[in-house]
């Protein structure tokens, strides 16, 4: 597991997971339900990380359960305000409690941010044997971050990065439970942000007309990050740092 949880108990007893039988669902009493797009996206995403896209598409084809088979992971948000439609902040609660047992495992968190971290932990617990079967050991985990700010910096002024590369970095950050992208978007070398108010800034300051981020690109980065519990801090250097013009 990475990073190592605050409290971890793992038993030698293991449970089998059958892709067509296993589901990640909202648990009873959760303040977040099917209308929580953030968790719905996380359920789909982590199922695909574990089993693959095609398995997610066919998961409605249910069969009878086998002995020692784990069929369900219930996610329960205990706080009245799940923060499903909000953005993460420096004070976001990322704590969670995960109990892996059969036939139903339970992931509890006060807020959706903790649930996202717990789903990442659950995905790391699973392993595949030489015959292609999936297993997870009986476990009890309680976790919360030691540091509220866990981030990386991307400098797209000195080294322009395609949008796809930035999104891939956000995926890698989520795998490692990082929660801040410091986007050093402009500086002396170039001004790759497309301003609708002052279009000459990027027209004169970008490396080429193709090396710019549109407002839609920026919106997509922020939303992609939010769905992974990551906040974006953009840095615009003013009034100096104007050599790109």
TrEMBL record:
GO terms for biological process: carbohydrate metabolic process; ganglioside catabolic process; glycosaminoglycan metabolic process. It catalyses: Hydrolysis of terminal non-reducing N-acetyl-D-hexosamine residues in N-acetyl-beta-D-hexosaminides; a ganglioside GM2 (d18:1(4E)) + H2O = a ganglioside GM3 (d18:1(4E)) + N-acetyl-beta-D-galactosamine; N-acetyl-beta-D-6-sulfogalactosaminyl-(1->4)-alpha-L-iduronyl-(1->3)-N-acetyl-D-6-sulfogalactosamine + H2O = alpha-L-iduronyl-(1->3)-N-acetyl-D-6-sulfogalactosamine + N-acetyl-D-6-sulfogalactosamine; N-acetyl-beta-D-galactosaminyl-(1->4)-beta-D-3-sulfogalactosyl-(1->4)-beta-D-glucosyl-(1<->1')-ceramide + H2O = a beta-D-3-sulfogalactosyl-(1->4)-beta-D-glucosyl-(1<->1')-ceramide + N-acetyl-beta-D-galactosamine. Residues 1-125 form the Beta-hexosaminidase eukaryotic type N-terminal domain. It comes from the Eukaryota. GO terms for molecular function: beta-N-acetylhexosaminidase activity. Belongs to the glycosyl hydrolase 20 family. Its EC number is 3.2.1.52. SUPFAM superfamilies: (Trans)glycosidases (SSF51445), beta-N-acetylhexosaminidase-like domain (SSF55545). Its main location: cytoplasm. There are 3 forms of beta-hexosaminidase: hexosaminidase A is a heterodimer composed of one subunit alpha and one subunit beta (chain A and B); hexosaminidase B is a homodimer of two beta subunits (two chains A and B); hexosaminidase S is a homodimer of two alpha subunits. The composition of the dimer (isozyme A versus isozyme S) has a significant effect on the substrate specificity of the alpha subunit active site. It holds the Pfam family Glycohydro_20b2. GO terms for cellular component: cortical granule; lysosome; membrane. Keywords: Cytoplasmic vesicle, Disulfide bond, Glycoprotein, Glycosidase, Hydrolase, Lipid metabolism, Lysosome, Signal. This is Beta-hexosaminidase subunit beta. InterPro entries: Beta_hexosaminidase_sua/sub, GH, Glyco_hydro_20_cat, Hex-like_dom2, HEX_eukaryotic_N. Residues 147-245 form the Glycoside hydrolase family 20 catalytic domain. It is found in: Cytoplasmic vesicle, Secretory vesicle, Cortical granule; Lysosome. Hydrolyzes the non-reducing end N-acetyl-D-hexosamine and/or sulfated N-acetyl-D-hexosamine of glycoconjugates, such as the oligosaccharide moieties from proteins and neutral glycolipids, or from certain mucopolysaccharides. The isozyme B does not hydrolyze each of these substrates, however hydrolyzes efficiently neutral oligosaccharide. Only the isozyme A is responsible for the degradation of GM2 gangliosides in the presence of GM2A. During fertilization is responsible, at least in part, for the zona block to polyspermy. PANTHER family: BETA-HEXOSAMINIDASE (PTHR22600), BETA-HEXOSAMINIDASE SUBUNIT BETA (PTHR22600:SF38).
């Amino acid at each position: 597991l990475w990073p190592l949880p605050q409290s971890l108990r793992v038993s030698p007893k293991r449970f089998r997971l059958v892709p067509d039988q296993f589901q990640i669902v909202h648990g009873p009493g959760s303040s977040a339900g099917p209308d929580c797009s953030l968790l719905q996206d996380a359920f789909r995403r982590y199922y695909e990380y574990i089993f693959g896209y095609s398995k997610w598409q066919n998961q409605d084809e249910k069969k009878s359960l086998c002995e020692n088979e784990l069929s369900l992971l219930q996610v329960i948000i205990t706080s009245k305000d799940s923060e499903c439609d909000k953005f993460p902040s420096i004070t976001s609660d990322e704590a969670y409690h995960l109990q892996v047992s059969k036939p139903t495992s339970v992931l509890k968190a006060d807020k959706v941010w903790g649930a996202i971290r717990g789903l990442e932990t659950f995905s790391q617990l699973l392993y595949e044997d030489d015959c292609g079967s999936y297993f997870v050991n009986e476990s009890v985990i309680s976790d919360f971050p030691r540091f509220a700010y866990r981030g990386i910096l991307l400098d797209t002024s000195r080294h322009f990065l395609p949008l796809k590369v930035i999104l891939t970095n956000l995926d890698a950050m989520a795998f490692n439970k990082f929660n801040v992208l410091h986007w050093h978007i402009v500086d002396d070398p170039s001004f790759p942000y497309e301003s609708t108010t002052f279009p000459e800034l990027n027209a004169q300051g970008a490396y080429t007309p193709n090396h710019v981020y549109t407002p839609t690109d920026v919106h997509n980065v922020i939303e992609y990050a939010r769905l992974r519990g990551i906040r974006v801090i953009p840095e615009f250097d003013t009034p100096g740092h104007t050599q790109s013009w």
